[in-house]
Amino acid sequence: MSDRSIVREPHEVLVAGRRARVGGTVRIVGAGLLGSSIGHALRKNGVDVALTDTSPAQLRLAVDYGAGRPAAEDDAPAIVVVCTPPDVVADAVAAELTRFPEAVVTDVASVKLEPLRELRDRGLNLANYIGSHPMAGRERGGAISARADIFTGRPWVICRDGETPAAALALIEDLALDLGAVPIEMTPEEHDRSVALVSHVPQVVASLLAARFADAPELSLSLAGQGVRDTTRIAASAPELWVQILAANAAPVVEQLDALAADLGAVADALRSPDAPGARRRTADAIRQGNIGVERLPGKHGQRRTFENFVVMVDDAAGQLGRLFGDLGELSVNVEDFRLEHSPGAQLGLAEVSVDPATLQSAVDGLTARGWRIASTSD
Amino acid sequence: MSDRSIVREPHEVLVAGRRARVGGTVRIVGAGLLGSSIGHALRKNGVDVALTDTSPAQLRLAVDYGAGRPAAEDDAPAIVVVCTPPDVVADAVAAELTRFPEAVVTDVASVKLEPLRELRDRGLNLANYIGSHPMAGRERGGAISARADIFTGRPWVICRDGETPAAALALIEDLALDLGAVPIEMTPEEHDRSVALVSHVPQVVASLLAARFADAPELSLSLAGQGVRDTTRIAASAPELWVQILAANAAPVVEQLDALAADLGAVADALRSPDAPGARRRTADAIRQGNIGVERLPGKHGQRRTFENFVVMVDDAAGQLGRLFGDLGELSVNVEDFRLEHSPGAQLGLAEVSVDPATLQSAVDGLTARGWRIASTSD
């Protein structure tokens, strides 16, 4: 690998010098996007990966792409990772616990309580079951889209309660760390409430907001700016997948949707009666609480460092953005963040570049000297 | 200007060869961000700009920065642009119409009906008043942040109804075009409903969604990904400004908030009773309508071109992003769009680069040869 290789191997990312710990055979049930990606990542660490899938074609693809070998009758896996569609997770976990009583079985479903309840209802011994949720950020694509790196730096939730055996927990933590993920332990209840808060309810909200554009006049939509495009970006998600997720996590989602609907109603009431005592203050408080909340979201490095921005105007004609990148590179501008905003109806892009405040002026001066038009700088 | 200057002069952006038409004196009332920016842009076109402001300090700053000259007693402006805070717009417009009966008076307030109603209530002749709303995207900063280019490529709404005199309308259209903006004509009612739809209601929604993070456990927030960060980005907006805007546009905002709250309730009900007939379909329809709506939002160039993406992994250690930019520039990769996503808790950034499908492979090959790790490509 050339010395320009920037990103370390997955298992080195988080803990310098840490060596992969998971060994022996890992059996993966379901060779789609997540299962195949786990296979790829484990194989890079020299682990023996045994794949199985109800679709012979999917299995063949996954094996051909190098995610692992077909599972064999005499396999004795230490870990089983169930990566089936959500509606059959409980069945698959139950089958694997029964078939491999020595193995620790985990899964990757995006809700944790429902599969756990189903398993408890069957009266199984669940000492060897630990629910996982790797939040890899991509849910579609199948074996062809699988990559070893999709877990790197991502949260990997491991569900435990007061009775989870320590050895089994350690094994799944090692799995997550070996894949370059960030293990985060919580109870299944905490997990489901958390994903409702930061993923499921935002999805519903973005979708319903965007749904109002479906029949809106084109003239109205022509006034849309980057703000609403960002707010509704995730409304492009797949309906079938989300119906399953929302149904499986209904309780916390419903609770939070009810609360949000009430908040919307409170703001509407305050605006309906602007002269009522406290009406203006209620609206201001809503915005203010939003300021606080958005500040609490983890950003870069999980820290909140202060950057300064400047905005460069980029003619979207071919090559201009590349030229900007070239100049930023040549000027050695330490770009901390970069956001590109397009202007509907014109060839103009606005590139918001975030840098260390101490370097703002030299970056702006350097780009200006090269002919770039700076639209604005933060104060 | 060096030949690296990429962006054409404002008045050339949209109509090649079009020469600026507004001449004579333009009087600007209120020399804050918008007023000063209009001044700067007009001065680049050689227009005589006369500034006034209730704050002598703001006026002095604006004049010093080159936005125009102080207004004089014997000025005879053809156009007056009122750029005061929203609560005094009607007063200012009334005063200017009275003082300069030959001039066309426009304003830049972000809601159009309320000032118009106040003016009608005073029984004035409004033949020379045309409401404007330049959607410049930045609302804070004062004269120091003013730039000539902030209107380039942006929508500039011009309010007209069946009785608007054609000559006055043409003058304000010329003003918008001279500033490089995209004039969009609609009635004040259409305007207020439109900005409620694409700006005001999304603001309330993003703020209320983010408000739920204000008291949430940090562990829950640690699961947040780029999706919810984008959805709540605009929740960082200023409360005081938004209380004014929402109060001034209360009617359409309330109507749309009520409808949205009802939609949230309908999804919550469907999830509460998942076995009720049509419940699953109702949830799927909500997501599907969101797909349709978000597709209708204008994007780059107002067209929907098909790009392919690939994702490059960037170690956030200093300089890596700049190196990526440098390599993209050196490889002459025609970058159509660029989005940077950070991984909370780790030093990893994921840069999603959009290119013409025909160039995807060579871009990926070129970067890989330079040691970059490609996390994924779109299918």
From TrEMBL, chains A, B:
Give the family from UniProt: Belongs to the prephenate/arogenate dehydrogenase family.
Q: Which PROSITE patterns match?
A: PDH_ADH
**Any one Gene Ontology molecular-function term assigned to this protein's record:** prephenate dehydrogenase (NAD+) activity
Q: What is its EC number?
A: 1.3.1.12
Organismal lineage:
Bacteria, Bacillati, Actinomycetota, Actinomycetes, Micrococcales
Coiled coil regions, renumbered to chain: none
Query: What general EC class does the enzyme of this chain belong to?
Result: oxidoreductase
What name does the UniProt record give this protein? Prephenate dehydrogenase
Organism, as annotated = Microbacterium amylolyticum
Keyword annotations of the record: Oxidoreductase
Could you name the domain of life of the organism this protein comes from?
A: Bacteria
Identify the residues that the record assigns to the Prephenate/arogenate dehydrogenase domain, covering every copy.
Answer: 24-301
Q: Which Gene3D superfamilies match?
A: 6-phosphogluconate dehydrogenase C-terminal like domain, NAD(P)-binding Rossmann-like Domain
